[in-house]
Amino acid sequence: MTLSTAPAPNEPRFDAGRICLDLLATAHPAERLDSVGSLRVWIHGAALVPPGTPLEHADASWPQRFRELRADVQQLLRGTAAADPRPYDGALGRLNEAARAALPVPCAVRRADGVLERELARAPECAALLALLARDAVELLTDPVARAAVRECEGDNCPLVYLDTSRGRRRRWCSSEVCGNRERVARHRRRAALARA
Q: In whole angstroms, what is the distance from residue 163 CA to residue 37 CA?
């Protein structure tokens, strides 16, 4: 039985179906936004900026700001305003405030071979990148169809959430290659143990 290997704990994942949900995945199984360098890797991997966009101006405050937005999105997805509305309303206010910032301005630039490619008019500010994520979260949270398709992974000890766009809405894991493989290996081992017994 050949199974693909799971990504390394610090390797970014982009399989949740929405960029705001991919942001949530940066906290599991280990913190992936623990430095400016790891945040730069995640920003490029998430395609928040065009390939090759320099992010050298990012400073030590950026990872914390991304983690704070992540916590707010998490609160809004998993929490309710019923029991104690203060944490929920606080997260909602911060999300809406983040969404108000101006977005990075793209422009088309002609390469030497004549092909057009996308670049940003200027280096993106942290608030502009957070606005992209916050607006995606607002869209998800306010779209009843998309919100109903948000699922929690059925993998053991996996708290990740994802958007289930599968036919029949029967996707069970955040990633077939990660949690799905773990489940298949565990099932195979159980069958092998029963066969030996």
A: 28
The pLDDT confidence band at residue 118, using thresholds 50, 70 and 90, is very high
Contacts by residues 51-57 (CB-CB < 8 Å, ≥ 24 positions apart): 53/119, 53/120, 53/123, 53/124, 54/123, 55/123, 55/124, 57/123
* Domain range summary for the chain, segments of one domain joined by +: 8-148, 150-197
Does pLDDT of 2 surpass 50? no
Largest CA distance in the chain: 68
Q: How many residues does the chain have?
A: 197
- Structure confidence at residue 159 (pLDDT): 84
Identify the burial level of 183 via C-beta atoms within 10 angstroms of its C-beta, where 0-12 means exposed, 13-18 middle and 19 or more buried.
middle
Residue with tokens 């029991």: 83
Structure confidence by residue, pLDDT tens digits, 22-73 = 999 999 888 999 999 999 999 999 999 999 999 999 999 999 999 999 999 9
Phi, psi of 152 (to 5 degrees): -100, 140
Pairing label, strands 116-120, 150-152: unpaired
Enumerate residues 6+ apart whose C-beta is below 8 A from 45: 12, 14
